[in-house]
Design goal:
The structure is a homodimer.
Chain A: H1 4-16, H2 19-26, H3 30-44, E1 49-51, E2 56-58, H4 60-82, E3 92-98, H5 100-117, E4 121-127, E5 141-145, E6 153-159, E7 163-167, H6 169-175, H7 181-186, E8 188-191, E9 197-201, E10 207-211, E11 213-217, H8 221-229, E12 234-238, H9 239-248, E13 252-254, E14 266-271, H10 278-290
Parallel strand pairs in A: 3-4, 3-5, 8-11, 8-12
Antiparallel strand pairs in A: 1-2, 5-14, 6-14, 7-12, 7-13, 9-10
Chain A binds a DNA duplex through helix 3.
Chain lengths: 295, 295
DNA sequence: TTTCAATGTTTAATATTTTCGAATGAAGCT
DNA sequence: AGCTTCATTCGAAAATATTAAACATTGAAA
């Protein structure tokens, strides 16, 4: 039967695109690599790599096997780590999706530190505000803000957060600071497309629903903040997305406490049935650390 | 570095609760098994099994490692199979959830054949009509009927199907066969709890919503069919769940074509990121074969 | 066309690992 | 204490892995 080392050698051959290069990487003689590879193929009774003396390329079966075995070896390292064995480094690819403001305001500034701590871990960011259908396609982690819909994912709360209304001082100066719902409903809004229906408390804490009056909607939360700062209207924002802008006076809060559904924690989501948890755990710790100051 | 065979021996020791028994199962000498085990522990620098001369028991680390490695070995066999290598049998555990009527009417009668074809595959059935939160907890496969909510699962359609209204002849005799919506709304219904709101076409194909008049609801589709057969009222049923009862005259269809949302195909769902697909593939083929005659 | 350089494979000797029977030890049962 | 049942250790033998060196193939340069 073939060995783990045979599998690892196969991976190395694929990733280094050659027997010689793989041998160098693994500190083995080319003969060994060649031997291991042919043993693997013999025992699987399947050709994994076509090789002529000049090039090496994967067979269709090899393609599939490479993907699978890569994940398996990774899962094994992960299992080793989970029992405290080996000081194996975190490596591989982690696919993460999150809203733009989380990325630009919290992740980006500290990304260097993360890269230095885990140099062998590659990150694929899918940055979008769209809430549905994001994790479907093989994402490892999703950062979500607000109420979770029940999605069969494991969720961990990263930080509490609430949504507030805000606007630029210049806008307020021009249109006045609203004092009640009637006035508020006359104002212009800067919204994400799916935020147009608003649920707000009146002075008796009764919930009113109305549609926001908009000149435009923007489907990216960062750009929408820019629009609010530029004075285009009142915006619904996560508190921790604009706390600095509030402090600097670039934005001011409008009618505090008026939002009916203002609870919008930041969540960390991942599929439950993954064989590898180390990468996601490490990334969770990183995300958690970014929001520590927001508690 | 340790080997695949070391891992497999470890698994065998755990599952046979002893070195000697494991050696017998693997057709090795006890000395070899002992060697392999200690090599594995040495290289992981972790104690996996506490052993005195009488018994063997897993350490906490061993417990974790056992679970992980089991899944990994299985994933590896699966990978081998996926490239057409080896004639490795399908083994392990498959957790399936499905509605009662699918199980009792379609799966049960053919279960023997499946067991004979894949004697090493254990099945865990979670039989329930409840639609939400079922796949959350480590289910491998879910059989669902009706519209799918977007859940991040891979879906394959097993068979087309529609929902119809039906009742027992004895019930119709007593209360009359309804001819229009007004009459229908006066009838008694036998429902699942979440079916009480009905959307029905009137004679102009306009959709009307009303709440079913019920004497009771039952949260199990099989028992609810029994209630309908016993003459307790009109029921909404999947056509393929009661086709035989219709043929035998135990149930009769009521106002064909009146249901507004009658499309209710049977779906096969599974998580996308599983490392093992062979088990689920095999089970999909089985499920598909059960409904062939319904096409 | 010939030659060279780069790459992969084979061969056969060498080194390492694995295996097993037998001996040893440890613990429960009578 | 004596017997039985397991697991481990030992040492020799068997199996497997590794390597250098020779060989083969091919693309490109001369």
């Amino acid at each position: 039967m073939y060995n783990l080392s045979d599998l690892e050698t196969f991976i190395a051959v694929v990733e280094n695109k050659g027997v010689l290069a793989a041998a160098r990487e693994q500190r083995l003689s080319p003969a060994t690599v060649s031997h291991r590879l042919s043993k693997l193929e013999r025992e699987l009774a399947t050709v994994l790599v076509f090789r002529d003396s000049r090039r090496v390329r994967l067979s269709p079966a090899g393609e599939i096997f490479y993907t699978r075995v890569g994940a398996i070896i990774e899962a094994l390292h992960d299992a080793e780590h989970s029992i405290g064995a080996r000081s194996s480094s975190v490596s591989g690819l982690l696919r993460v999706t999150m809203p733009p403001w989380v990325f630009s305001k919290y992740v980006m500034p500290k990304l260097n530190e993360f890269e230095q701590a885990y140099p062998e871990l590659k990150l694929d960011f899918l940055i979008t505000d769209h809430f549905v259908n994001v994790v479907d396609d093989a994402q490892d982690v999703a950062i979500r803000v607000g109420k979770l819909n029940d999605s069969g994912l494991l969720s961990r709360k990263i930080v509490n957060n609430s949504r507030i209304l805000c606007a630029a001082p210049s806008y307020i100066e021009k249109y006045g600071m609203p004092e009640n719902l009637t006035q508020l409903s006359e104002h212009y809004w800067v919204c994400l497309p799916w935020q147009r229906q608003l649920k707000l408390f009146d002075e008796h804490k009764k919930i009113h629903t109305f549609n926001a009056k908009t000149r435009f909607t923007i489907s990216n939360s960062d750009n929408m903040t820019q629009a609010a700062i530029a004075g285009h209207g009142i915006a619904i924002k996560s508190k921790i997305a604009i706390n600095e802008d509030l402090k600097n006076g670039i934005l001011v809060e409008v009618m505090p406490g008026v939002m009916a559904q203002d609870d919008a924690p930041v969540w960390f989501l991942r599929p439950q049935n993954s064989l590898t948890t180390r990468k996601t755990d490490v990334f969770y710790d990183f995300m958690k650390s970014l929001f520590l100051s927001c508690e």
